[in-house]
Amino acid sequence: LNKKDLFEKRIIKSPLTICFPEYTGSDTYQEGVAYIKSQYESRDKSPSKEVYAHVTCATDTSNIQFVFDSVTDVIIAHNLRGCGFY
């Protein structure tokens, strides 16, 4: 989920129900992000694959570095499991 900085500003002015009419939570940044993440995660129908949601701002280099590090960790762990080492 990219552009968290823009979402944080826009959720104050535009309720989430504009895009998600079924949404019943409050129009706060935290609840909005949690709802959108849950929507992505609920659509993961493949038991052999996992969905990892990260809330990012692409211009924040430390944030993007964290995402790259997380992805690297997942790939390494997956490969180690495949070899029987994890």
UniProtKB/TrEMBL annotation:
GO CC annotations, alphabetized: cytoplasm; heterotrimeric G-protein complex
Keyword GTP-binding in record: yes
Keyword match Metal-binding: yes
GO biological process, one term: G protein-coupled dopamine receptor signaling pathway
UniProt keyword annotations, A-Z: GTP-binding, Lipoprotein, Magnesium, Metal-binding, Myristate, Nucleotide-binding, Palmitate, Transducer
PROSITE patterns in alphabetical order: G_ALPHA (PS51882)
Alphabetized Pfam families for the sequence: G-alpha (PF00503)
InterPro entries per UniProt: Gprotein_alpha_I (IPR001408), Gprotein_alpha_su (IPR001019), P-loop_NTPase (IPR027417)
Sequence positions that bind GTP: 2-5, 58
SUPFAM superfamilies named in the record: P-loop containing nucleoside triphosphate hydrolases
Any GO molecular function: G protein-coupled serotonin receptor binding
Gene3D superfamilies in the record: P-loop containing nucleotide triphosphate hydrolases
Cross-referenced PANTHER family: G PROTEIN SUBUNIT ALPHA O1, GTP-BINDING PROTEIN ALPHA SUBUNIT
Name of the protein described by the UniProt record: Guanine nucleotide binding protein (G protein), alpha activating activity polypeptide O, a
Name of the gene: GNAO1A
